[in-house]
What we know:
The structure holds 2 protein chains of 2 kinds.
Chain A: E1 12-21, E2 24-25, H1 27-36, E3 41-43, E4 56-58, H2 62-68, H3 82-97, E5 105-109, H4 115-126, H5 134-141, H6 145-153, E6 160-163, H7 169-182, E7 188-195, H8 199-207, E8 231-239, H9 240-245, E9 252-261, H10 274-286, E10 296-298, H11 305-319, E11 324-326, H12 329-332, H13 339-353, E12 355-356, E13 372-373, E14 379-380, E15 385-392, E16 396-403
Parallel strand pairs in A: 5-6, 5-7, 10-11, 10-15, 11-13
Antiparallel strand pairs in A: 1-2, 1-8, 1-9, 3-4, 7-8, 9-16, 12-14, 15-16
Helix pairs in contact in A: 3-6, 4-5, 7-13, 10-11
Chain B: E1 5-13, H1 20-29, E2 36-39, E3 46-50, H2 71-86, H3 93-96, E4 99-105, H4 110-122, H5 140-149, E5 155-159, H6 164-178, E6 183-190, H7 194-202, E7 217-218, E8 220-227, E9 232-236, E10 240-241, H8 248-260, E11 267-269, H9 276-288, E12 293-295, H10 298-301, H11 308-322, E13 337-343, E14 348-356
Helix pairs in contact in B: 2-5, 6-11, 8-9
Amino acid sequence: MISSPAPQPHRVAVTAIGVVSPLGLGCEETTRALREGHDGVAQVTAFDVSKTRCKTAGLVDLAKLKAGAGLKRHRREHLHHPASLMMMAAANEVRRGDGAFDPQLLVIGTTSGGMSFGEAFYRAQVRKKHPRERAAWLANYLPQKPVLDAEEAWPCAAPNQIIANACASGTNAVGHAFRLVRAGHYQRVLCGGYDAISEMVFVGFDSLQASTPEKIRPFDKSRTGLVLGEGAALLALEELESARRRGAPILAEVTGYGISTDNHHLTQPHPSGVGPRQAMERALLDAHRAAGDIDYINAHGTATIFNDATEGTAIAELFGDRVPVSSTKSMMGHSLGAAGAIEAVFSVLAIQRQFLPPNIHFREIDPAWRLNIVANEAREAQVRRVISNSFGFGGTNASIVIEEAAA
Amino acid sequence: MKTTTRIAGLGWVTPLGASLDEVWERLGRGDVAEAKVVANPETGREHIYAPVPLKTVDALARNPRLRRSSAISYFAVAAGLAALQNAGLTLTPESAARTAIVFAISSGGVVYTRKFYEQIVKQGANVASPLLFPETVYNAPASHLAAQLGIDGASYTLVGDGSVGLGALKFAEQILATDDLDRVVVVGSEECDWILCEAYRDWRMARRVGSTRGALLAEGAAAVVLAREGKVDLQVHDGVPVFREREAEAALSRIYADLLSGHGADAVIGSANGTFVDAIEQRALGRHVKGATVYLPKRSWGEAFGASALLQTVVAALTLEHGLLPGMAPETVKIESVLVSALGFNQQAGGAVLRLS
């Protein structure tokens, strides 16, 4: 077991956040949607879904994003992948929130980069057509490109690290960035994640029968699977005293990070829940917190039979039924590499605005565990500390602890 | 931030073989990997790449965890196991708990990705195989390696271009400093497919059949065990993003200046691969690393993207071990510091310096 490092002197503040998701563009729209329990899942029209069981996904309003997200007009903008647009919009919001934040490093999670451009390239081969865009498809297909596009638009030229740890990528990115700032390696790190919907990934989850033709019902007795989503989110992390000295807004603190690898199977977690449990235990240990200190759990909660069974077991064992739990994927779908970062932003919003986002479409708890589900409607609550979970293919598990900024 | 970690073990799987000694000798003789011709089945257009001979990973053929895996995972596991063996390490549950994996990848599981999407396009989404899809995920090879080694802690997969191996070394250096770990197994691996060749040819990077210009795409894997104790000190640069090709020389120059701090290096393991990279790297080295002997291993085994910079790093570490570059006469001056330089196709530049501990 990887134990907690010795206590470090540096506290890590979140000074700005930016988010693009099926629940809205920006924090204000997103907060309203979270409070209202908005369902951001819609029919997929970007590709043919006539032969898949699932036909829906949480979709970002790209037209609105292009029109109103404050993106600068760019002569080559038609070559930007939607993931680049989402990243640029999230970065814009961070800059609006803390204009003086100057990142020394970017740590970003993703699972599929610009996959839809790769699909276009393959289809062009099959059709024996070679459109002029093909070189641009390739250059914009690679996972680092949306990050570089966001940097260029910022503008900043900090080194970047792109983590592709499947669905845990976003939380891994925030967690790694947190550790670097806490250890004093960097004062300011911009972290987060992105992913845009693509046919290959959509069909992939459908082929595994992980996605559902019904509503997504995390932790419900009658849950039938996930729906995919898309989006991007960024968090500006800075050493707390440095942020205070320059008068930056302190939205929250990141205080703990835990990672584990479950070697049971490439796509199925060990039924005991050992992987999620280790990640949460390690995050709590890292934050010097006990389970009883946590006020809200933003669960991974994909609503697949296997994920919820293991995560539900791990949460019930660690936290009992005292701590409120919700999966915000019930509202926006599973945005893969972006999910952990988006949910970290939701966790900051829950702390700032003192409410618990709901787990919508919920009917009846799975009798396998007793959990305090925030069912269907948001709750006003005192939220000081949140643990946010992300688990992914390859057995990768990650949890982070986010807290209200102490005086 | 400058920190020093040490290299404790090395491993590789290359188109020239998988034994450190054998490949070193072949590099010294100036051997060049044999290229394989593959055709785009849709258009008939032919491409070449340097494959890893399958016999190289024969020993893993009956590994139950790898039975549905693509070649990339076989290469990765073989290189990782070789590096641990080179380090004299047999992981127990206790030592595995203090070991992490950092994986470098660029194209990833292209064979299964292309096959899976081919099924969607040609046969329909309803018949696309659930056995293929999980192996298309970038972190599938790292997952197989973790399972093989019994590592249940930190495992990260980093994506990038041909410089991502150095990014992975930097990341490993960071988690060694911030987490309670004894070592990190850093692995980079790639496999080839006709769609990859087609893509890089359309991008005007890949070498055509019968040509000597452009990069010969290649398969392969490399692994480096990083620890606090070892024979070679490693200092890795954070890397510099490059937004336009004309900025690349300045990016490399900055990296060299930061790493060498006026001390120079006895040798350079460069990333020249037959493309625009060559001239840019040559100019930057000519201005900032004068007098060093430059060795270009991609002339022997091609461009293996996610594995490339780690393959360069293994060459650099072996150069220090031998005191010589591959093929260099023994009476030549002993090499005590080596710069690894990497400029990728997709806007990333990196560097590292290795010195004898």
